[in-house]
């Protein structure tokens, strides 16, 4: 797999609701993206919604990156990243206005991985060679 995006996340807080046999945790965040393909930041409004119930849990993060693609042109990247707790990879969906990065648009061969080592939450998005 080839790493396409690395996003360093800063958690801004959280809100929790418990009821009906579920716990929902709403986690707003900011951050910055660094990779050979894109440099930029997470725009205000990024949020991860985590749902826990008797069957386990899931997450769904949605956010927009704004910055510069590898051709030096300004662009935005929308990311929706869904996953289930206990699975190794998440399933990101990307939409971008960058001509250079258009290969990412709704690409089914993308995988995400959360990394919490060194006290820094990092999301890495990979393109599977498949």
Strand coverage percent:
over 45%
Mean pLDDT: 94
Number of strands: 10
Overall shape: globular
In short:
This protein is mainly β and 130 residues long.
Question: Can you walk through the features of this model?
Answer:
The protein is mostly beta strands. 0% of the residues lie in helices and 65% in strands. Strands 1, 2, 3, 4, 5, 6, 7, 8, 9 and 10 form a ten-stranded antiparallel sheet that branches. The radius of gyration is 15 Å and the shape is globular. The model has no long low-confidence stretch (mean pLDDT 94).
Features:
10 strands; 130 residues; mainly beta; 0% helix; single chain
Write the layout of secondary structure elements.
Layout: E1 2-11, E2 15-19, E3 22-34, E4 38-42, E5 46-53, E6 56-69, E7 74-84, E8 91-96, E9 110-115, E10 121-127
Antiparallel strand pairs: 1-3, 1-10, 2-3, 3-4, 3-5, 4-6, 5-6, 6-7, 7-8, 9-10
